[in-house]
Amino acid sequence: MRQQPGATGWRTPFPEHDMGERVARLVNGQLLDYTQVGDDFALARIRSPADYLGISFGQCDLRRKHGITIVAVERPEQEMTYATTDTELADGDVVIICGRAEQVDRFTERA
Questions:
Q1: Within 13 A of 26's CA, how many CA atoms are on the CB side?
Q2: DSSP one-letter code for 84
Q3: What is the per-residue pLDDT across 5-33, written as a single tens digit (0 to 9) for each?
Q4: Chain-centre distance of CA 38, in angstroms?
Q5: What's the CA angle centered on 72, arms 54 and 61, to 5 degrees?
Q6: What is the DSSP code string of 13-76?
Q7: φ, ψ for residue 79 (rounded to 5)?
Q8: How many angstroms separate the CA atoms of 94 and 106, rounded?
Q9: Segment 33-50, tens digit of pLDDT
Q10: Cα(20)–Cα(25) distance, integer angstroms
């Protein structure tokens, strides 16, 4: 959503614009879903980044390195579960990440 000129503290919805931004983000092969929350925060559903397969989230230190947090992991044929520091990604996993929109965008572009 964009902020309408003259409106302070209120966000005016622009559905076509917002959907256009969302579709543009989804063009990336790793990105499966994207939702911006507020002005500067985002949640994204992405395929497991190959760089982090077999490494625990505690060892990855994604929050310090990339400013994002992995919230949940979805494994094939299993229910989605919360991510912990001991969780290791496997090929075929899908993860939910969150963080500042710019950092989520940057991470999903490199994933």
A1: 12
A2: -
A3: 555 555 566 655 454 554 544 455 578 99
A4: 14
A5: 50
A6: --HHHHHHHHHHHHTSTTEEEEEEETTTEEEEEEEPPGGGBT-BHHHH-HHHHHSEEEEEEE-T
A7: -75, 155
A8: 18
A9: 999 888 899 999 999 888
A10: 9
**Interatomic CA distance for residues 16 and 103, integer angstroms:** 24
Tokens of 69: 């947090």
Residues 6+ apart with CB under 8 A from 92: 48, 75, 76
Joined tokens for residue 88: 């290791």
For tokens 């929109």, the residue is: 101
Contact 70, 57 (CB under 8 A): yes
Q: Which residues, other chains included, contact 51 with Cβ-Cβ below 8 Å and sequence gap of 6+?
A: 111
Nearest to 30 by CA among 79, 95, 103, 102: 95
Judge contact between 69 and 99, C-beta under 8 A. Answer: yes
> What would the two tokens of residue 25 be?
């983000």
